[in-house]
Amino acid sequence: MKTLYISLKIFLFFTVLTGIIYPLLITGIAQLTFPAKANGSLIVKNNKIIGSELIGQRFETNIYFTSRPSAISNNPLPSGGSNLSLTNSKLKHSVDSLRGEFILFNHLDTHAEIPSEMLFASASGLDPHISPEAAYLQVERISKARNLNESQKMSLKNYVSSSVNYPQFGLFGESCVNVLLLNLELDQHYIQILHLN
Amino acid sequence: MKAQDFIQIFLFFVLLIGLTPLLGNFMYKIFTGEKHILKPVFGWLEKLTYKFSGIDPNEETNWKSYTFSLLIFNLVGFVFVFLIQLFQAQLPLNPANLSNVSWRSAFNTAVSFMTNTNWQGYSGETTLSYFVQMIGLTVQNFVSAATGIAVLLALIRGLARRTTDKLGNFWTDLTRSTLYILLPLSILFALVLVGQGVVQNFKTYDTVQTLQGSTEVIPMGPAASQIAIKQLGTNGGGFFNANSAHPFENPTPLSNFLEMLALLLIPAALTFTFGRMVGSIRQGWTIFKAMLILLVIGLTISLCAEYSTNPIFGNLHLMEGKETRLGITNSVLWATATSAASNGSVNAMHDSLSPLTGMVAMINLMLGEIIFGGVGAGLYGMVIFIILTVFIAGLMVGRTPEYLGKKIQKFEVQMAIMAVLAPNIVILLFAAWASVSAPGLSGLNNAGPHGLSEILYAYASAAGNNGSAFAGLNANTIFYNLTIGVGMLIGRFGIILPVMAIAGSMAEKKITPSSAGTFHTDNWLFIGLLIAVILIVGGLTHFPALSLGPIVEHLLMNKGITF
Q: Is the backbone peptide bond immediately before A78 cis, with ω within 30 degrees of 0?
């Protein structure tokens, strides 16, 4: 009985300490020091939140860079991957058809090498990044859809290469570009042509 | 693989090895009551804990009442987490208006977090309120890890002390582990994670108008505080469904590296603490080396498997279920570390790993979570294998087996065998049942041998208190909720009880001084024997099942066969 009594009290104590005070303390410090990050790295345009820098969005029209395939159609509730095994015929079919679609959509050569992250669904279904190679492959198609001239196309290419996230400290992770940020830039600086079109 | 991949792996192991004596020494000071730097900072909190709870910190108990306190405390935690899930809709901090959880899912989750498994049959962002995540689950993340350390400390005292029945005080071990190790490390780590972009707020989910004009709901919550302890306490239960693959849980390669390091840190450092507490740092490093070797072997096999080509996908990089920013090397390193460490968080979907990589993860679970393993749990599990190794070596040379000067006798060997059998029985019996019954088979996401792998992985994860999954398996059914729930209980307490019994019986023995005839347990010969015993026990138990799952899948994949 004494043990149960102690258990209840110490459990209550730790619940208050680690379940209430600890998260509140972290929230407090986080909101003071990194408010934007603690609140989801949200992107605001014209006073409206249009998304989070970290959460990949779905892009289906030809005027935008496309994101990685998502097993959850980029709907974050709940996040997740396809969980298909390599020997699942559905995965093989999906890779083949995604390759075909990517080639067709971007007017590429049928034997073009497509970066594999564009053929395989991400783990979270919300991967905000693609490889720089996958972005370069889409520049031509976007330029055409937005009616960009040669110099604008060059500047877009340069923009892509300047926005590559290289491995952190030259060490950790892979080179990648953030699709939503690229597309925001498109709407910011490459939009006038679209209206003329 | 690029040079940069090797550098990342190298750096990971250098930091792990370098931090082991630092943190290990610090923990030694805490557990032996020596002065340490956090005593002035949190000492008052420790005193307050004892005063509030009515604990006499100087009172030491025998193994039975130590275990009894542990069980009652865990039971209280279970009941609380179970109940708040059943009534979360009536409780505060539920901005997403999530409904009450079903009793079977609540049972599974409560067992899961109490046993340090953190298997998740549910999806965090669509099932549990902030209240449950914080006040229920975050607390269990702390105290289940502290419980593991407490059991280890009792075992160490049993080995180090002579002719006594006193193994320490469960409440002080629990309190010190939480206040001086888990909490300060979590505070630091959570803030670093927020700096990298992990969310930490109490906002409602944001509904946003996306760039191309559709709507997207962005989930929020106090994630960083839970993720820090989920990694450090080898818990592994994600705030979001995709766990550490979710960009809000693991936004950058740096956060990824640190989360990976955090999940092995305390289990690795405890080997050093062990060495110091039993009076021989060499003994601690011996265990560390055996664990490290097993980890590196697994990692090597996994990397080779994941980077090799196959006739189905040609030379494509296998990016299914992996994140672009993390890439293949980091996903494989994480998969190996998380399965070895009984952590169970994932940054890639294990179901989509190549068959042999998935198998290595599965073997790490099946060996009993002793390759670093859970906080505390990995090391006491390893001591079980050490007892077996010493016993077998003793049989071979015809001498009474001893470990650290303590005779290993019939009782200890019986208990050790029980601790080895308990999780293996769970894996084999439940997996066999699931693979021949309709409710078991209905949960499968993949056909062919991979279907068996999904089932095997689930019960190996439950029995090893790991919590990672071949997540295609729909485990949120009454069959899986209950069988996995029971499996986790057996996997946890089926080992803790025999370990505590061993601790009690060891404490009462005399310490024989080492002589010329003593079989040394701190050299490479012993490391080799220990690894051999681990692999033979694991291999004999699980090879038949593995050959029908991942091994045959690998062979079929290399013939280009799909299902």
A: yes
Q: How far apart are CA B21 and CA B276, in angstroms?
A: 10
Parent domain of A176: 40-196
Question: Among B183, B316, B324, whose Cβ lies nearest the Cβ of A127?
Answer: B324
Pair of tokens at residue A108: 């590429």
Nearest CB partner across the interface for B242, out of A80, A129, A169: A80
Both tokens of B477, joined, read 């059914």
Whether ipTM exceeds 0.90: yes
What is the pTM for the complete model shown?
Answer: 0.96
Query: What phi, psi does A12 have (nearest 5°)?
Result: -60, -45
Q: How far is CA B358 from CA A185, B99, B260, B332, B533, in A?
A: 40, 35, 18, 10, 23
Q: Which residues pair with B216 in a beta bridge?
A: B208
Spell out the residues 6+ positions from residue A176 whose beta carbon is closer than 8 angstroms to its own.
A129, A130, A131, A132, A164, A165, B324, B325
The pLDDT tens digits of the residues spanning B81-135 come to: 999 999 999 999 998 899 999 999 999 999 999 999 999 988 888 899 999 999 9
Q: What is the pLDDT of residues A126-182, one digit of tens each?
A: 999 999 999 999 999 999 999 999 999 999 999 999 999 999 998 999 999 999 999
C-alpha Rg value of chain B to the nearest Å = 23
Q: Are B484 and A123 in contact (CB under 8 A)?
A: no
Smallest Cα–Cα separation from A24: which of B368, B131, B295?
B131
Alpha-carbon gap, residue A47 to B77, rounded angstroms: 45
Number of Cβ atoms within 10 Å of the Cβ of B140: 31
Residues A60 and A14 in one domain: no
What is the gyration radius of the CA atoms in chain A, in angstroms?
22
The residues, ordered by sequence, that sit 6+ positions from B75 with a Cβ below 8 Å of its Cβ are A7
Structural tokens at position B375: 């906080």
Residue A25 sits in the same domain as residue A84: no
Residues in chain A closer than 8 A to B331 (CB atoms): 123
Whether the CA torsion B464, B465, B471, B476 is positive or negative: it is positive
Half-sphere exposure of residue B158: CA atoms within 13 angstroms, side-chain side = 26
Q: Are residues A61 and A152 in the same domain?
A: yes
For residue B447, report the phi and psi dihedrals to the nearest 5 degrees. Answer: -95, 175
Are residues A124 and A150 located together in one domain of the fold? yes
Beta strands in B371-481, from DSSP E residues, in sequence order:
402-403, 406-407
Nearest CA in chain A to B245: A124
Question: How close does chain A come to B445, measured CA to CA in Å?
Answer: 7
CB B330 within 8 A of CB B449: no
Q: How many CA atoms lie within 13 A of B223 on its CB side?
A: 30
Claim to verify: residue A28 and residue A54 sit in the same structural domain:
no
Check residue A197 and give its pLDDT: 43
The DSSP letter of residue B88 is G
Question: What phi and psi, each to the nearest 5 degrees, are found at residue B504?
Answer: -65, -45
Distance linking the first and last C-alpha atoms of chain A: 80
Same domain, residue pair A52 and A88: yes
- What residues in A contact B241, CB-CB < 8 Å? 78-80
Q: Do B199 and A40 make contact, defined as CB atoms within 8 angstroms?
A: yes
- How many CB pairs below 8 A link A and B? 368
Q: Number of structural domains, chain A? A: 2
A102 and A126 housed in the same domain: yes
- A19, A39, A85: residue with CB nearest B352: A85
Mutation for B interface: A10, A55, A184, most B CBs within 10 A? A10
